[in-house]
Design goal:
mainly alpha; ABC transporter involved in vitamin B12 uptake, BtuC; 14 helices; about 75% helix; globular; transport; transmembrane helix; Iron ABC transporter permease
Length: about 325
């Protein structure tokens, strides 16, 4: 634990907020179109309809805000999943939540030709919930019952299944492939504020509720028997946690597609900074998860300019070494 006093934790959180704001400012400045700080400031204080101002206000601002919200959502979802399952590899991507939500959206696009953000959101929630149920059910089968390793294997199996079904649908429907291919790789390019407005009424309450339940999560991580002995209704807490994960994971997929590794990397990094107290882990997940995705989005638009890499590719490049390290440490290899 790097920050071992309350003062240091507060100071670190303030630094994280400043980092997030600086990265969001950088996201407004840097890209294919050349702009600078003065241009960005004038776009908000003296908008004149120029191409530069339109790009800043209508293109880059939504990207920065969406990246911050999606990154925070995935990080909190991963932290809660790891607490509830006692599995260091738990995250919406590894447990197939992202793949299931994405599959439901692709079915809507390729079969029913849906193009409504509101419909995408509800379908992503349904896909996330259905996948979570399948992973829990499959992971519970067998004599030993539910174990972290079986949950991981069940999640990987569901992720592979829904990814394969998604690819199969797109093979037989090339028109849908053109529409969702970039989104499936995880991307916030071209996203409008409308998409954020659609999911924010669900994501924001879920984040606030997760912060309210942080102390109860602390008790639950001490063991279910201990939690019950202290009067905690563990079943209700687990259901609430599962609903929060479904809303955050499904909402993130609806806006940005299946973005991997943030839900694994950020919770572990937050624990490294502040220890195992979820009253601090979750706020750190908000600022660090948002910061990581905004940073990855900046890199995504710069590395092969004038072309752009899906932000999901950048998070995979950043997150894969951490995933390997956590997998080896978490399962004692």
């Amino acid at each position: 634990m790097l920050f071992n006093t309350t003062f240091r934790k507060i100071f670190g959180l303030i630094l994280g907020i400043i980092l997030l704001l600086l990265l969001m400012c950088a996201s407004l400045i840097y890209g294919y179109a050349e702009t600078n700080v003065v241009t960005v400031v004038k776009a908000f204080t003296n908008f004149n309809g120029s191409n530069e101002h339109i790009i800043v206000y209508n293109v880059r601002l939504p990207r920065a805000l969406i990246a911050a919200v999606v990154g925070a959502s995935l990080a909190i979802a991963g932290a809660i999943m790891q607490a509830l399952t006692k599995n260091p590899l738990a995250s919406p991507s590894i447990f197939g939540i992202n793949a299931g939500a994405g599959f439901f959206v692709v079915v809507a696009v390729s079969v029913f030709y849906v193009n409504s953000y509101q419909t995408y959101t509800w379908l992503a929630f349904a896909g996330a919930a259905f996948t979570a149920f399948l992973v829990y059910f499959v992971g519970s089968l067998g004599r030993e019952g539910l174990t972290p390793m079986k949950l991981t294997l069940a999640g990987a199996a569901m992720a592979a299944l829904f990814s394969s079904l998604t690819q199969g649908l797109l093979v037989v429907n090339e028109a849908a492939l053109d529409q969702v291919l970039f989104w499936l790789a995880g991307s916030i390019q071209g996203r409008k504020m409308e998409s954020l407005y659609t999911v924010l009424p669900y994501i924001l309450p879920a984040i606030l509720i997760s912060l309210f339940f942080a102390q109860k999560i602390n008790v639950l991580t001490m063991g279910e028997d201990v939690a019950k002995g202290l009067g905690q209704r563990t079943g209700l807490l687990k259901i609430t946690g599962a609903l929060i994960v479904i809303i955050l994971g499904g909402g993130a997929v609806a806006v940005a597609g299946p973005i991997a590794f943030i839900g694994i990397v950020i919770p572990h990094f937050s624990r490294f900074l502040v220890g195992n107290d979820y009253r601090w882990i979750l706020p750190y997940c908000i600022v660090l998860g948002g910061s990581l995705l905004v940073f990855a989005d900046i890199l995504a638009r710069l590395v092969v300019m004038p072309e752009e890499v899906p932000v999901g590719v950048m998070t995979a490049i950043i997150g894969t070494p951490f995933f390997v390290y956590i997998a080896r440490r978490g399962f004692g290899n």
